[in-house]
Structure formats: C-alpha cells, structure tokens
C-alpha cells in the first residue's frame, strides 16, 4: 500500500520534464495517474509505460491547452477513463525566449492562455469531479518572486498570476477540505531549459551557481515536494507558495 493508494491524480504536461517526474512519483505512491500531454503522444505513452513498469497504473490523455474548448475536451477525455479525481497538478506550461522589447501580442496571449487561463478553466470545470479532501498543486516559478531574469517578464507575469489563483482558490475550495498550493522550481534540467543549460559552454555551471546547493535541479527534486503536499502529511498546508528552487532566491 502506497501513501496514495486508491487516489486518482491528473498531471498536466506529464509527457516530459517536471510533469513526467511528478506523474512517476505519484504513480509510485499508489495513485492512478492521468498522464496529460499536448502533442507528444509517444512521450506520454513512455510515461505511462514507466509508471506501469514500476507497478503503478496510468493512462494518457492528449489535449493541447490554449486551444478552443481545451478544458471541456480534456475533461471529456478524462471521464472516459476515470470517475472523479483526488489530485490535480497544473504543470503544463510554456516559456518564451522573447524579451520585453521583442514579444508580440500573439505570443503574449498564448503564454497566458496556456499558463494561466487553462489552469483556471480546467479547475472550474473539474471542480465537481475533484473529491472533497482533494489536492490542487500549481507549478509556479521562482521567477514570480525575483527579477533575476527580467527579459522573461511575460513568462514571470504568468506565474505571478498563477500564484494569485493559488491563494484565492485555497479559500474557495477550503470549505471542502481541498488544499491548493504553488510549488516554485528554480532551474530544472528539462527540454525547456536545454538551450540555457547546454547552448553555451558555461551554461550549466552558471545555472548551478545560482542555487545554494551548487547544482541544477531535476524533475524528481520537484516531484518529491509535490508528493508531500498531496499526501496526508500535507493536509494543513494550503494557500502556500513553496520555494523549490534549491535556494536560488536566498
Ligand atoms: P517541458 O520539459 O517543456 O515539458 C512541458 C510539458 O507540458 C510537456 O508535457 C508538454 O506536452 C506540456 N505542454 C506544453 N505546452 C502545452 C500545451 N499548449 N498544451 C498541453 N500540454 C502542453 O517543461 P518543464 O521544464 O518540465 O516545465 C514544466 C512546468 O514547470 C512549466 O509550467 C514551467 O513553466 C515550470 N517551470 C519549469 C522550470 C524549469 O527550469 N524547467 C522552472 C520553473 C518552472 P508535449 O510533450 O505534448 O509537448
């Protein structure tokens, strides 16, 4: 029996990176995991296979967020596999390489559509499916609290908006015993950060130096934090912004 045996979890953007790490960890803890992806079905199936190989249970659901009726379509797909859920992790997100001076309105709108609007409507439309005593975790960013990378201003703004969503939603869902928290990673080694880390000779070393612990984070570093929040041990933590940057903000 794992800590999450009998629970169902949905992790958005679980085909790759941090979301995959979270899905695998929740699967190991006994949850049945809905592995959501946008376009990369093959990667999602690899996540499902990894969870099953470790003795867990999972299924993949693909809906590109930031497209019309994304939330409705995602829940329709989810309902074909499961009857309600206990854990909702909003992890899917996109970044931008374009600075304040460069970003166009279309890209700005897409950043907010995927990183902010999708979690908002997914939660609203899924609230009846989420069982009392459940958990919502929003994957934020250290950049919501520091101006360390001001050129990423539009991306950082989306994460700050997500954090306000966390705070207010914790009050709205609290009467049902549902906790809502933000987990804020620093630089994590994923496809998203490949250019930053490996695009230049000293990228990895410079990123590692930002952390008090002297290394770049892994998806598992974030997944273990999420595992605590969604477990029974995390029941009295809600509306919280949890720094999972490896000490990058200190
Ligand atoms: P990643 O490696 O690029 O993976 C992104 C995941 O999100 C993939 O599963 C992808 O699905 C899915 N996704 C992206 N856009 C989508 C869309 N429009 N619709 C549906 N699914 C979509 O990213 P990551 O680095 O793991 O980041 C995960 C989260 O952590 C993001 O919210 C990011 O902002 C946040 N974060 C990351 C870092 C970091 O250093 N990596 C730091 C702080 C916060 P497909 O495989 O189908 O494309």
Question: Can you walk through the features of this model?
Answer:
With 250 residues, the protein is an alpha/beta fold. It has a single domain (8-189, 219-241), classed as NAD(P)-binding Rossmann-like Domain (Rossmann fold, 3-Layer(aba) Sandwich), CATH 3.40.50.720. It has eight helices and seven strands, in the order βαβαβαβαβαβαααβ. The protein has a seven-stranded parallel beta sheet, with helices on both faces. Helix 4 links the parallel strand 4 (85-90) and strand 5 (130-139). Helix 1 (17-28) packs across helix 8. The longest helix is centred in the middle third of the chain and has 22 residues, at 105-126. The protein is globular and about 45 Å long. It starts with 7 loop residues before the first strand and ends in a 6-residue tail after the last strand. The model has no long low-confidence stretch (mean pLDDT 98). NADP nicotinamide-adenine-dinucleotide phosphate binds at residues 13-19, 37-40, 43, 64-66, 91-95, 114, 139, 141, 185, 187-188, 190-193.
């Amino acid at each position: 029996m794992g800590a999450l045996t009998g629970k169902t979890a949905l992790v958005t953007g679980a085909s790759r990176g941090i979301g995959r790490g979270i899905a695998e960890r929740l699967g190991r803890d006994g949850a049945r995991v809905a592995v959501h992806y946008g376009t990369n079905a093959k990667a999602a199936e690899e996540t499902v296979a990894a969870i099953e190989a470790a003795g867990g249970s999972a299924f993949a659901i693909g809906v590109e967020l930031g497209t019309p009726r994304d939330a409705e379509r995602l829940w329709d797909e989810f309902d074909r596999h499961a009857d309600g859920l206990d854990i909702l992790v909003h992890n899917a997100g996109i970044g931008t390489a374009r600075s304040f001076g460069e970003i166009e309105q279309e890209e700005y709108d897409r950043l907010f559509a995927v990183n902010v609007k999708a979690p908002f409507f997914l939660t609203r439309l899924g609230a009846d499916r989420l069982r009392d005593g459940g958990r919502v975790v929003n994957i934020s960013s250290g950049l919501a609290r520091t101006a360390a990378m001001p050129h990423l201003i539009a991306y950082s703004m989306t994460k700050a908006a997500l954090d306000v969503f966390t705070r207010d939603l914790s009050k709205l869902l609290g009467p049902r015993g549902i906790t809502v928290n933000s987990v804020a990673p620093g630089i994590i080694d994923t496809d998203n950060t490949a250019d930053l880390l490996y695009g230049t000779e000293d990228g990895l070393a410079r990123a590692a130096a930002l952390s008090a612990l002297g290394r770049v984070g892994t998806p598992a570093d974030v997944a273990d934090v999420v595992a605590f929040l969604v477990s029974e041990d995390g029941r009295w933590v809600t509306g919280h912004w949890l720094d999972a940057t490896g000490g990058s903000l200190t």
